[in-house]
Amino acid sequence: ARPPRVPQILREGVESSRRQLFIDAFVSAGKVDNITMVMGLHPQYLSSFWKTQYLLLRMDGPLPYHKRHYIAIMAAARHQCSYLVGLHMGEFLQVGGNPAWLQGLHCAPPKLRSLNEINKLLAHRPWLITKEHIEALLKTGENSWSLAELVQALVLLTHYHSLASFVFGCGINPEAEQDGGPGCRPPSPHGDSSPASDDGVGGSGGKDAMREVEVLMERMKLLRESQLEEEGVTQEEMATRFELEKTESLLVAPSDIAAPTSLQSNVLCFVEDPEFGYKDFTRRGEQAPPTFRAQ
After folding, report:
1. Under a CB-based contact definition with an 8 Å cutoff, are residues 266 and 180 in contact?
2. Contact at 8 Å (CB) between 245 and 215?
3. CA 45/CA 181 separation, integer angstroms
4. Which residues are catalytic?
5. How far is CA 143 from the centre of its chain?
6. What does the UniProt entry say about where the protein is found (predicted)?
7. CB atoms near residue 235 (< 10 Å)
8. How far apart are CA 180 and CA 49, in angstroms?
9. Fold that domain 63-174+262-275 belongs to in CATH
10. SS3 64
11. Cα–Cα nearest to 161, from 192, 114, 121
12. Where exactly are the structural domains of the chain?
C-alpha cells in the first residue's frame, strides 16, 4: 500500500489534537462551548488560550472565584457582549456567587463597583488612564484594593474586552441550552436582527453580511475608477468619499448613532454611563493627549 501523503498525515494529526482538546473540555466543564468549537480550528491556539483562562479563573490568586467571574461580566457588558455576560453569569452561580449581584451593578459590593470607572476607560479610551485612577483604588479604606488584587482584576478586564471582540468578529452564537435565556444573544449593529443565524456560525446572517461586503467592494471599485477619470482628486478627498460610502452602506454603525435603549436590559444593568464610547485618540492638527506609561 502507498504511504499516506504528508498533507494527509498533518491533517489527521490536527484532527486528533482537536478531538482530544474537545474531550478535555467536555471532561472539565461538562460541555464544549462555542468559543472552544471555533478556536478548535487552530488547536495550538486553543491550547494556549485554555491555559490562560485556567490561570485567570481557576488557579490560586488574590481574588475569590466568584469575583473573577463578576469582573468578567462587567468587562463583557461594557462592550455589550451578551454572549459572554450570559456565559459568566452561569459560571458565577456555579462557584457560589450571590444571585442578588446579578440584578445589576448597583447590587454588587462597593469594592467591585469602584472598578466601573477604570473598566469604562480601559474598554473605550485607555489612553485617558492616569496614576490617580490607580491611587484611588489602592488608597486605604474599607473598600480598598490590594496591589495584587488590582493587578488580577485589570488583567481580567483587558482579557474579556479582547475576548468580546473575538466573539463579535467570529459571529459566535449562544449554546443551545442558553438560547433564548437571559443575556446570551450577541446584539446586532442593525437593530433586532442577529449577526448570525441560530443554525451556527454564519447562516443567513453571514450571507447578509457577505452581501454588504460585496456592495461595499463594488462601491470602492467605482470610486477607484472615478479617481482615474478625475486626476485632480486628492487622496484625502478619496478617503472622505470612501467613509461616506461605508456609512451609507450601513456596514458599520457609528457608535454615536447606535441607540443604547435597543440593548437588552440584562446587559445594561451591569453598565453605568452606557453612552461613553470610543473617540479618536488624536486628530490631525490637534495636540496629542498625555500618555500614562508604566514600566
Report:
1. no
2. no
3. 30
4. 81
5. 28
6. Cytoplasm
7. 8
8. 28
9. AhpD-like (1.20.1290)
10. coil
11. 121
12. 1-62, 63-174+262-275
3-state secondary structure of 188: strand
Q: Is 48 helix (H, G, I), strand (E, B) or coil?
A: helix
State the cell numbers at 36: 472552544
CB 246 within 8 A of CB 284: no
Please state the pTM of the whole predicted model: 0.62
Cell of 138: 489602592
- pLDDT tens across 110-155, in order? 999 999 999 999 998 888 899 999 999 998 788 899 999 999 999 9
68 to each of 4, 25, 60, 84, 257, how far by Cα in Å?
Answer: 48, 20, 12, 13, 33
Residue keyed to cell 457609528: 254
243: cell is: 467613509
Sequence letter at residue 20: Q
pLDDT digits (tens, 9 = 90+) for 8-26: 544 555 566 667 766 666 5
Rounded distance between C-alpha atoms, residue 137 and residue 150, angstroms: 8
Q: What is the CATH number of domain 1-62?
A: 1.20.5
